[in-house]
Amino acid sequence: MVCKGTSLNVEVGFLYSFTGELYCGLRLGSRTLVASPVNMSCCDSVDGKRVLDDVKDYYGKRLKKSDDLRIPTACSTQQTAGVPLAVRAAIGEVHDEVVTRYYGCGLITPEHVDGCKVLDLGSGTGRDVYMLSKLVGEKGFVTGVDMTDEQLEIANKYVSYHTEKFGYTKPNVEFIKGYIEKLGEAGLKDNTYDIIVSNCVVNLSPDKKAVLTEAHRVLKTGGELYFSDMYADRDLPEDIRKHQVLWGECFAGALSWKEFAEISTKIGFSQPRIVSASLSPIEDPELKAVVGDYQFASVTYRLFKLPATKDESCEAVYNGGISGWEDTLKLDYNHTFKRSEAVGVDSELATILKHSRFAEKFQFEKISDALADEDNLVDPFQYISVHGQSPNACCASDDKPATNGGCCKPTEK
Length: 413
Fold this sequence. Notes:
about 25% helix; disordered C terminus; alpha/beta
C-alpha cells in the first residue's frame, strides 16, 4: 500500500524485495524513518515492523477518502470501458463508503468466476471482494486478506448490507487480517481456492517469492493467479533501488520481468501469460535522470497451478456460454477462442484448459500429430514493441494506453 499524502506530505515507500537484499523505507516530509537494507524479511525485522505500523496508521487513520491523495489519480478506480455489463453492474452495487475508501487501481476481472472460491490479496476496504461476491453468486465465496485494521473494519461493516442487496440468504465473503507472505498464519489452507486476484500489491512485498509460493500452495490444482503489477525491463541497480521517491512511486520495488518468470516457474506455476501490458514512463526530469534508460511496464499476467503430468496437445473447441464472453474468449494475448471453432493447443495450454474452471466450457479432440510447445512470449516490452500497448492494462483508459506513471501510482490499497 503505497501512496503520497495531502497536507501531511507523507511519502511511503516500503517492503521492497530485490536480488540479494531487502529495503524498507517511509518518509514524513524530509524525515526518513527507515532507509537501509535489512538482512532478514522486512516483515520479521524490527525496522520492518515499525514501517508496517506507520503504514497501517497512515492508511487506517490519516487517509479518509481517495480524494485525500496528494497527486491526482493516474487511473480511475471506476474505469469500466470494455468491461462486461455484469461486472459494471456489480461495481455499481458496492456501497459508496467502500468505494470511497478504496485505494486500488483499475479492475482485475478474470472470466468465468461463478461458483468459484476466490482470494483477494491486499483487499483493502473490500471493493473488489464485494464486486466478486456478486459475480461468483451465492454458491461461490470470496476471501479478502489485508493487514490494516481500519480498512478491515470498513470492509466488515458492510457484509450484511451486501448480503441483503445481492439477495443472498447468508454472506459469501470474509475478511481476514494477515500478511500475503504468510497466508498460513492467517489460517488459509492448502488447495482451497479456484482463483487468486491481486492489483499492484505483490510489487510491495518484502518477499515476492514467499507471496507466489503461498499463492501456489492455497490454489487448487488447475487454479489461477490473475494479477497486475509493475515490472522493469532488467534488474535495477542500487541507486534506483534505494531512491526514496521511486520507492513511493512503485518503481524501485519492481522485479525484472525475467526474474519474475524464473521465480514463478520454479515454484511450479505455468509459464506467465500476458493478458495486457502498457509502458509506464517516468516524466519527472529529476527522476528520469536517476532512471536513465531503464523501462517499466504495468502488466496483467495469469499463472496456473498445473498437475505434475501435462496432457497431450489437442484441438480445443470453445462451447461459449461464459457471461460477458459468450462468443469469444481471450485467454491471453496470443490465444482467442471463438465459439464452435477448433483451435490447436500445445501441451501446457491443453493442461490449463482441461484442469481449470474453463474445462466445462470446452470440448477436446485428439490430433494425430502432436503440436510442439509454443514459445510463449513473457517479455512485456517485446510484447509492446510487437503488438502495441494494451488499452486494458492497469492505469490505461479505453482510448489511451497507460502513460502517467506506475501501476501503483498513487492509489495502492
